[in-house]
Input
Amino acid sequence: MVEYRLTRLTSLIDLANKLLDECNGLLKAVCQCQWLFVGEDFDKAGITTDRIEELFITYANIFQELRTHLIINLPIGLYYSDKAPRLPFAGDCSFVIPDTPVYHQDHSANETGRNALTKVLEARMSLDLFEPDQMVRLIVASGGNLRDLFALVNYAADTALLRDANQINAEDASAAIFNLRSDYERRLGQSPFDLAEITYDNKAKRLVEVYNGATEVKIPDRIMYALLNARAIQEFNGKRWFGVHPLVVDILADQERLPRNPTGEVIGGTI
Amino acid sequence: MALSEGGLQPGTIEDISKRLALWAKRDLSGIVRVEYSSEFSRQRVMQRLRNLLEPQGIAIQELTLPSFQDAETVVQKLIEQLEDVAKNPSTVASVTGFATAFSREMSLSEALRVLNFNRDRYLALPLKQIWWMTPAFMQTAIHAMPDLNSCFVQRLQLTEGVLEEVAGPQLQTADGSTTNIDEARQRAYGLIHQFEAAKNSEAAPTELLTTYVLPALEALSEVGAQKELRDLTQQFEGILSQLKATDSLELADSLERLANLYVEQGRYTEAETLCQKTLNLRKQLLGDEHPAIATSLNNLALVYKFQGRYSEVEPLYQQALNLRQRLLGEAHPHVASSLNNLAELYRSQGRYGEAESLYQQTLAIDRKVYGDEHSTIAIDLNNLAILYESQGRYSEAESLLRQALSLRQRLLGDEHPDIATILNNLAGLYTSQERFSKALPLYQKVLSMRQKLLGDNHPDVASSLNNLAETYRSQGCYDEAESLYQKALSLLQKLQGENHPTVASSLNNLAILYESQGRYSEAEPLLQQSIYITAQTLGEDHPRMAIRYNNLAGLYEKLARFAEAEPLYLRALTDSYQWLGKDHPNTRTIWGNFVSFLRKIIEAGQAEVLSDHPTTQDLLHHLQQD
Output
C-alpha cells in the first residue's frame, strides 16, 4: 500500500499519467479512440466550497498536467468569483452555457433569440392562447431563461383562467412579470456568498455601467461577480458581452437610475 | 385603500388558493414555492385548497420538517416523507418548517447547498409538492439554491394577513421585574434617609443626585411603583433641575437615567428634551464616532417608540446599529442588542419577515459571545418565540419557549421571576391557540409565583390577574373574569395612579368583558374613560388611540348608534393607517371592522345616516356594487 500525500502530488500525477497512457493506448488499439473524462457534481452535498476551491486553485496543476481529455463542469459560483482568474482553464477553453439573449448589446431586439424561444413555447402549447404581443412580452421578461419563461407563462395562464378567459391578455402578462420581478429585487440584496459587503448603491452604479456598454466591465471584480451570480447581469458567449436582465433594467428605471422614454418604456427592459 | 379580500388581487388568500388549485388539477408532479409571513393566512389557504380539490378526489397531506437537524438528515427525512405521500396517487404534499429545519452547526447558506444539490430527488417523485417559505429564509435561499429556485414551477407570494382580535392577553417580550416590591421600597426609603444625612453634612449636589436620589427613584421604577415614584420625583424636582441644567459630560449618564425615569412616568416631552441634550452633549465632547452616541440614539428612539412616533424610531435605531457595527465589529453584544431593538420595532409594526431575520442574527451573535448556556440566549429564544406566535407559527414558538424555559431552569432553578415570565408567555401561546385547559393552570402558577416572589402589590401581579381574567372571559366564565379584572384594575390604580396608560388598558379590558355580556351601558363609560386617559398620557396621536376608538365604535355599532360609530371608525382607521401603515394587523382589523359595519348598514337600509366622508362613500359604493 502506497500512501499518497499532498507533498507527493507530483509522483501521483506521474503515476496517473502512466496509467492514462496505457488506457489510451489500449483503447486506440481497439477502436481508434481516446478516453474523454467528464468531471461534474462538484457542488455535491457534503463537499464544502472551501474544498472545491482548494482542488481547482491550490492543486490546479492536476488538471494541467494530466495527459488526457477532460471536460470539467464547474460550479458557477466558483466561475463567477474572485478566484476565477486563478482557475487552470485557458480563456479559449472556458465556456458559459448562457440564457438565450432577447436583446443585442445595443438594446435592439434580438429576433433570433426571441424566435428560438417562441419555438420552445410552440412545442409545448398553442400560441393562439396569447393575445397579440403578449407572448413576446413574457419572452423578453424571462431574459431568455427557459424555466423563468415557463413560470411566467404558467402564472399568466392561471390569471387568465381565474377570470374565465381563454387567452392571456396584457394584464395577465403584466401580473406574471410583476410576480417574477420580486425574485430579482431580492437577488440584488446582499448575498451570504459575497465575501465582503457590497452596497446596493455600488451594485446599481455597476449595473448602469454594464447597461451603457462600458468596456472595462469585461474585467470583473467582486461587484461584477456578485451581480453575475445573482443573474442580474447575464454573460453571453461569442464576442463575450454582458447585459442587464430586463427585469433589473425595469427596477433601475423605477429608481430613476435609467431614463424612461415619453411612453414610459425603458430601452432594454420589459415591454 | 384596497379591500383586503376584494376581487382577486395578487397575493390574497383567495388568489393563492385558486392558483394552487388550478396547478394541482393540471399538473401531475412538480414543486410550487409559496412565500408567506402569516401562518393564519397559510392555514386559510390550505383550508380553501382542500375544499377546492376534494370534489376532484385530490387529497392534501401536510408535512413538517424536523427541527434543527444537519442538512443531510433534513434532505433524507424530507425524501422519506415525500415518498410516503407519493404512495397515494393524486395527493398534494404541503411542506413547512424550512426556516427551523437546519441545525446552526453549519451556516444556512451551506446547508441550502445540500438541499439544492439533491433537487433531482424531490423533482423525480411522482407527486405535487407545495413548499412554504418565510421571507427571512427566502433571503438566503434565493442566493444559496439558485438551481432549485429555477425548478419551482410557480413562485407565489401570500401577502394577505388575517384579521386578529384587538384585545388579548398581555405578554412580556423579554423580562418582567425580578425585584420584590417591599424590598425595593425599603431600599428607596433607606437611600432617602441617607440622602438627608449626606445633605446635612454638605455633600455636593451631584453626589447627592447620583448616589442617593437617582438610585432611590430607580428602585421604585424597577418594581413599577409609579405613584410613589411620581410623588418622590416631585419632592426632588428642585435638585433634579440642577442636573437638567448641567453641561458636564460626567453627568450625561445621570441625565439619561433621569430621562428613563421620566419615560416610566409618561413624561415623554421632558424625557425627549433630556435625551436630545445628552446626545448633543456627547457629540460635542466625544465626536460623532463614539459608542456612547449609539446609546444616546437608542434612548431617544425609545422615547419616540413610547410616543408611538414609529417613523422616527427606525432611522435612529439604524444609525445606532451602523455605528456600533463600525466601532465594535459585527459580533458584539451591543450590536446584538441594537439588532434586537430593530426586530422589536418591526414586530410591533407587523413587519414579521424583517423582524425574523434580525432576531436570528441577534441569537447567532449572542450564541457566539455567550455560548449556549446563558440567560441572554433564553431572552433571545423567548423573543423569537413571541414573533412566531404573532405569525401563528405555534409549534415553532412552543419549541423555542420550552428551550428557553429549560435553559432558565438550569441557570436559575424553578422559583424565579424570570421563570414566571416564560411560563406566562407559554400560557399566552396556549391561549392564542384556544388551548385554555393548558393555559389556565399555567397562568395560576405564574400568579402565585409572582405573589410569592414579587409581593401582592406588584404590576406584574396585576398583569397576571389580567391574563387569568382574559382566559376566563374567552371561555365564557364571566363571573370569574370580572372579579379578576376588577382586582387588576384596582391594583394598578393603587400602584400607578388613576391616570396611567396601563390603567386605561385595564378599563378597556373590563369594558370588553361587559360588552361580551351585553352590559353595554356599563361598558360605555369605561371605554370613554379609557380614551380620555390614553389621550392624556400618551397623546392624541398615539397608535393606541386607534384601538380605543375602534372599540368604542364597535360598542356603538352594537347599540345601533351608527352615526356615532362612523366617525370613530374613520378616526381609528386614519390613525392606524398613518402610524402603523396599511399592512399592520391592527389596521387590517379596523379596516375589516369598518367594512363589516358598512355591510350591516347596507343590510339595515340605513346608508343615509352616514356622512359624506370620501372613504365611507367610496367603500359604500364598492360594497353596494358587490
